[in-house]
Amino acid sequence: MKLIGSSTSPYVRRSRLLLADTPFEFVDLNIYAEGRDALRKANPALKIPLLQDGEQTIYDSRIISRYISSKLGLPALSWDEENQITLVESVNDSLILLFQAGNRSGLDIRQDVLVFNLQHERIASTLSELERQVVAGKFASWNYPAICLLCMLDWTRFREVADLSPYPALLSFVEQAYQRADVQATSPR
């Protein structure tokens, strides 16, 4: 298997962690510079990660996780776990949009503009719910939803896109996850 993406992407990191005990090749691209052409050739959606396994190519991290889980015989996700991933992806997408708008495009993401306001609202609402779920023990097992949560939170800290200090359980979750060697090895830093 070959995983193509960027070492700083939270979506790519999920797949890397899911494959931590499986041999695979990782192709690290700078998708905003010289790696853009390679991405364009590999994925018409221009998204990372993508997984190539023989003749099979898969374009999306959530579908990649299903493929890997099926291939490795991992248990299927419950509906509650699917919902946890949806929450993580919602806040992750909003954070990435704000990062691209602010850090990559030079826009003031604090201005009173609908698209930015909606992202800030989603981030606050979703992080509060994820904090509640961590406190309730919903992310106690190291499984794909926990991997997704860790990748989003650590990317948020790495890119300094949002203040996580109001969410002590989420910060504690990250610190506990960093006890794992695979988490340390895939750090975006």
Task: Quickly list its features.
four-stranded mixed beta sheet; about 190 residues; alpha+beta; about 55% helix; 8 helices
Explain what this protein looks like in three dimensions.
Pfam families: GST_N_3. This protein is 57% helix and 8% strand. It has 189 residues and is α+β, with helices and mostly antiparallel strands. Strands 2-1-3-4 form a four-stranded mixed sheet, with helices on one face. Strand 3 (50-53) and strand 4 form a beta hairpin. Helix 4 crosses helix 5 (114-135) and helix 5 (114-135) crosses helix 7 (168-177). The model has no long low-confidence stretch (mean pLDDT 94).
Short précis:
Residues 1-76 form the GST N-terminal domain. InterPro entries: Glutathione_S-Trfase_N, Thioredoxin-like_sf. By secondary structure, the chain is an alpha+beta fold.
Please describe the topology of this protein.
Blueprint: E1 2-5, H1 10-18, E2 25-28, H2 36-42, E3 50-53, E4 56-58, H3 61-72, H4 79-104, H5 114-135, H6 144-159, H7 168-177, H8 181-185
Parallel strand pairs: 1-2
Antiparallel strand pairs: 1-3, 3-4
Helix pairs in contact: 1-3, 1-6, 4-5, 4-6, 5-7
